[in-house]
Amino acid sequence: MKKKATYIWVIILAIVCSFSCIILYKVEYPGRTLRQIAQNRLLSQSEENSLLAHFTYRYPDKAGLPKEIRMPVYDKAQTALCIEKDKEDLDTLNHLDFSHSTHSLSKTTICHSLMFSLKHSIQLSSLPYFEEPFTPYSGVQNELPILLTEYSFEKEEDVKNYLQILALLPEYLEGLCQYETEKAATGLFMSDFAADCVINTLDDFCNMPDAENIYLTTFESRLKELYKKRKISKKEYAYYLNENERLIKTVLFPAYQKTGDSLTLLKTGDKSTPKGLCYYPDGKQYYETLVCSVLGEDLPITALKNAFCRQLQADYVELNALLQSHTDYFIDIMGKEEQYDPLLSLSPEECVHMLQQLMGEDFGTLNMDDYPYEIKSVDSVMESYTNPAYYFTPPADDTAHNVIYINHAQTPEGLSLFTTLAHEGFPGHLYQSVTCAHTLSSFSLPSLSGITYYGGYLEGYATYIEFLSYDYAKQAAARLALNDQSSYYYDYLMYQRRICLNLFSILDIMIHYEGAGCDDIAPFLRRIGITDEQNIANIYNYIATEPATYVKYFGGYLKILECKNLAKDVWGERYNDQDFHATLLKYGPVDFFSLKNAIKAEIP
Q: pLDDT tens digits, residue range 155-187?
């Protein structure tokens, strides 16, 4: 009997253990798998691109990155393997169930958003030669100088790695030229206008005199700081300085020239203006997928255009009402605009400090220790190649390294500087990026930043903040001038900005989905005061060669407003702006379908 009883207890214990293992598996496996896939994808990208890895990880050794320096080289077969990996990860994620996990809503939201990104990446890969690495205004030829000149030197090893990267850039650029050759064979090579823009940019860098050569001057200043900190000797300083100059002049610039030559040979000789994507076979389909992918929501292009048009009409009505209600006020402003902008007296640092104070009511109390930052100026040589301002996303393992760059040639002081710093800094990109990183880290959840790109969320949120900051600007101006005479003037400028961004988004659809040419868009631009023929041509060329750029800004902004209205409807009396913003920032860059589901499920 004792043996039988013991046997029964063994069976019971085995059953209990089995059930415990099943429960533990259901709880732990999905979350662990999600983290593993996200981390592996980020590591994989960094392993193949040491230049990118330097900005992705502050401590690459701890992240498990190999010491070998690499730069990606285009290979058609390797690209096919990457697509298969996307499909494999998508299938794995599709079978994960987080219903038994802690933070199940957060995990589900991030998982579904990663699936959305992978699904659209796979769809876009079926039309491989529409992607353009050398877009005239934001392509590799403009991106490389920014990354190379901002590559930080904290120890001697960083200098060595940087020089190795320089040595690998010819092969990297050669691979991109091979891709362009394949594009040309399918009839999808860029327009001659776009090619000339890229070639001219490459030539400009090659022809810079030494005193203005940013590759030489910025390297020397970074190296000098390392020498001052006694992390390299005087002899090493001299050696690295000479080695950098040798690589720039005998390796990088010849590679630039070779790239320019390759693009020249691929030109078709067609001197007409660039065409929208819809003029190419499957171009309309590609544009639809691109917009949905970048925006972060699947919706018909016609529905998106209708949303833009409704908002445009509403803003025109509001602007006209403002002008008619305060006619004498606006007559008085004419020719004296500077008197109505007290923010002209503020430095960039003062703008940020005031924004941090004013955002509290909408976002809660800010602990400045959690949001360290620097404000830097874009090098004068780079002013014509970069945006009015931009924010460098901090490394995944060091959210304390935040830098906002201001292009003073394109960002006038006053209200424009104030709203730009709101967009890029507080409570814009910088605040969003760091807040999201802290939140996800506290939940042991992976961030999708770096492995997905949701321009609609990122730029839509920052545009939402930009428009919100016009109210902050009115409060700041009232404090400085001790009156509110700037209020209506700032409202007027805000409506102008909204109408302009919205119209450019509509023109993007007209050019790439409906086939509009420069003459077709000219009447719309004249309605908002853009009458110079060259300016009209410049706007057309920009939109034609940078598809979906404006759509992610204003389309994303409208989607943020949709999310806000949804929260008000679902949360009812519990709604407040602070809770909405906290939910908006909680997951970081995600698609709007997943974000809306989270809003419905997460009532404060």
A: 999 999 999 999 999 999 999 999 999 999 999
DSSP 15-60: HHHHHHHHHHHHHHHHHHHHHHHHHHHHHHHHHH-HHHHHHH-S-H
Phi/psi of residue 51, nearest 5 degrees? -70, -45
Instruction: Answer whether residue 24 shows pLDDT above 50.
Output: no
Instruction: Name the burial class of residue 292, with classes exposed (0-12), middle (13-18) and buried (19+) by CB atoms within 10 angstroms of its CB.
Output: buried
Cα 216 to its chain centre, rounded Å, is: 28
Give the CA angle between residues 397, 403, 404 to the nearest 5°: 140
Structure token pair of residue 548: 């979906």
Count the Cβ atoms, other than its own, within 10 Å of residue 586: 20
Distance CA 578, CA 364 (A): 6
Q: What is d(CA 46, CA 395) in angstroms, rounded to the nearest whole number?
A: 12
Q: pLDDT per residue over 523-564, tens digit each? A: 999 999 999 999 999 999 999 999 999 999 999 999 999 999
Give the CA angle between residues 404, 408, 409 to the nearest 5°: 135
> What are the structure tokens assigned to 481, written together?
């001038």
pLDDT, position 6:
60
Is residue 85's pLDDT more than 50?
A: yes
Alpha-carbon distance of 516 to 507, in angstroms, equals: 8
Distances in Å between the Cα of 465 and the Cα atoms of 1, 85, 359, 418, 545 are: 76, 37, 10, 12, 27
Tell me the three state secondary structure of residue 120: helix
- CA-wise closest residue to 86 among 64, 50, 116: 116
Distance CA 403, CA 55 (A): 12
Q: Tell me the pLDDT tens digit for each residue of 497-508.
A: 999 999 999 999
Pairing of strands 403-406, 389-392: antiparallel
How far is 16 from 72, CA to CA, in rounded Å? 51
Return d(Cα 439, Cα 509) in angstroms, integer.
Answer: 36
What radius of gyration do the chain's Cα atoms show?
A: 26
pLDDT tens for each residue of 124-154: 999 989 999 999 999 999 999 999 999 999 9
CA distance 563 to 569: 10
**Between the CA of residue 245 and those of 41, 70, 251, 352, what are the distances in Å?**
35, 21, 10, 38
Query: What is the value of pTM for the model shown?
Result: 0.93
Q: Omega before 427 cis (within 30°)?
A: yes
What is the spatial distance between Cα 560 and Cα 478, in angstroms, rounded to a whole number? 28
Contacts of 525 by beta carbon, 8 Å cutoff, 6+ apart: 503, 507, 531, 535, 536, 539
* Coil/strand/helix, residue 391: strand
**Residue 315 · residue 498 · CB < 8 Å:** yes
